[in-house]
Amino acid sequence: TVGAVALDQDGNLASTTSTGGTPGKAAGRIGDSCLIGAGCYADNATCAISGTGDGELLMKGLTGYSIAMMIDIRNMPIQEAAEQVIKNNKWEGDIGIIGIDGDGELAIYFNSQRMHRAWVDKYGKSEVHIY
Amino acid sequence: SKIALAIHGGAGPDNEFIRANKKQYKDSLQRIANTGYRMLKKGEPAISVVRSVVSMLEDDPLFNAGRGSALNKDGDIEMDAAIMNGADLSAGGVALVTRARNPILLADQVRRHSSHLLLAGVGADNFAVQQHIPTVDCGYFVTEEQRRAWVENAIKQDHDPYAKSGG
């Protein structure tokens, strides 16, 4: 799975996610990457999120939308919202997200052994990691 | 005005292929993230930047999307993708796609030129042709690494039918 989130000069947010799916999946299995609110979500009022991991968990937990709601209703910073949603998810398995809010704050969080990720923050500082 | 961008190439268990290709993964992620950031600095809208950088990731056979996609139980390619614009809450998704060279471009066609949110299977493949999205033979998507992983998985499942299917 691959994904991107961005904040542009006009203060707009956007998100994309794309995947070949889980290796060895049953024919016809659809994952979270194409479901708005699960593996892909963006709303200028809250955040842009792209998710990855065990798709069934992000679908059952509506991960992208849940993080946006934590920001909207509890006024939570995006990193804290992401950690809360992933730590409190009800099922065992791998979840990773990247997120960004209207102030350019990034959220990068995963509970798996690795997540391939790179970013350039609002200060122009870039990083790339796998583990 | 602040600009910022983040990309990912998937999360899950570590494996030998990842460890053997760490530098290639990092170089590719760094190059694509920098390209996206330069687009933002030039004033490109976030929606076209995220669409562009994910299509670059789909073109890179290292990642499980587009070329380099994982194979399903039958050894076939079925790809999913979605895009959403925070400015107007427009969104589009495609599932079980087998022909569009870049599924994310097809998802964006659903967002901009369809009254639906998600198109799947043959309908999504036909929509790619209607919208003149580049399509390829599904063999284009299959890499040696994913083929090898599929064989390994099939053998494991054969010997142990209850083995958890990959992922």
SSE blueprint:
The complex is a heterodimer of chains A (131) and B (167).
Chain A: E1 2-7, E2 13-19, E3 40-43, E4 47-53, H1 55-61, H2 63-74, H3 78-87, E5 95-101, E6 106-110, E7 114-120, E8 126-129
Antiparallel strand pairs in A: 1-2, 3-4, 4-5, 5-6, 7-8
Helix pairs in contact in A: 2-3
Chain B: E1 4-12, H1 16-20, H2 22-41, H3 46-59, E2 79-85, E3 91-97, H4 103-113, E4 118-120, H5 121-130, H6 144-159
Parallel strand pairs in B: 3-4
Antiparallel strand pairs in B: 2-3
Helix pairs in contact in B: 2-3, 3-4
Quick overview:
Chain A is α+β, with helices and mostly antiparallel strands. Chain A is built from 3 helices and 8 strands, in the order ββββαααββββ.
**Major β-sheet strand ordering of chain B:** 2-3-4
Helices and strands of chain A, in order, run as EEEEHHHEEEE
Helix content class of chain B: 40-55%
Oligomer: heterodimer
Helix count from the secondary structure assignment of chain A: 3
Helix and strand composition category of chain B: alpha+beta
* Residue runs with pLDDT of under 50 for 5 or more positions of chain B: none
Binned strand content of chain B: 15-25%
SS element count, helices of chain B: 6
**Strand tally of chain B:** 4
Low-confidence spans of chain A: pLDDT under 50, at least 5 residues?
none
| Global morphology of chain B | globular
- Give the neighbour order of strands across the main sheet of chain A: 3-4-5-6
- Give the N-terminus to C-terminus distance of chain A in angstroms: 16 Å
State the distance separating the first and last CA atoms of chain B: 40 Å
Structural class of chain A: alpha+beta
Supply Rg of chain A.
14 Å
Compute the average pLDDT of chain B: 94
